[in-house]
Amino acid sequence: MKHDPFQCVEAAPIFHNLSKKAITELTKISVHQQLYPKGTMLYEPEVPLDRMLIVDQGRVKVFQLSQTGQEKIIYFIDQGSMDSEAALFTQQSHFNYAEAMEDTLVCSIGRSDFQALLKEEPSIAIAMLNVLGDRLTRLEALNSYTSTLTSKQRLQNYLMDIGNKRHEQSFELPMKKKDLANWLGITPETLSRQFKQLQKDQLIKLERNQVTIL
């Protein structure tokens, strides 16, 4: 399928309510479909935060590493999602690692070009505030997964969220089980037990990585 720069920019949540004129101007200053092969780092800590990213195709894992090298997944960037929105407003460096989980095509908008355009289209700033609010809400939801809920509840809520977003009762897990366990803040062994418990309770069916919500 041929890439459409206008549709790529327009699909980003931060730009949903902008005029076609504004989208056209954003398209002019954006870089499209930069390829990151599977396993490639999009950024690492201390790398300058100077551009907003839009995943056009593929999937990206954002994580931190402890002093002992243990990985902690923070969130995932799926197709059509954005990352590093703060780059458009501030001069800082990245705090996390971002790795392509599969061959990934990324579009981006640089800070200097964006700020020049912002003077002509201030409505973009309002849209940005709404998106940042949504990001905070998602991070709060993640905190509930890893703190107040039991391991069974975390897994069940996650599966329900995936099904609701895809409008499907049956779907393939979008990540490896070890990554899912990491993201939910539980061990792979605990994840395996909770999958079995959800099946025993007749809440799901699981065949390899294919989940069906009953």
Automatic annotation (TrEMBL):
Protein source organism: Pediococcus argentinicus
Segments traversing the membrane: none
Domain Cyclic nucleotide-binding as annotated: residue spans: 14-118
Keywords: DNA-binding, Transcription, Transcription regulation
PROSITE patterns: CNMP_BINDING_3, HTH_CRP_2
Name assigned to this protein: FNR-like transcriptional regulator
Listed SUPFAM superfamilies: cAMP-binding domain-like, Winged helix' DNA-binding domain
GO molecular function: DNA binding; DNA-binding transcription factor activity
Domain (HTH crp-type): residue spans on this chain: 149-214
GO CC terms of this entry: cytosol
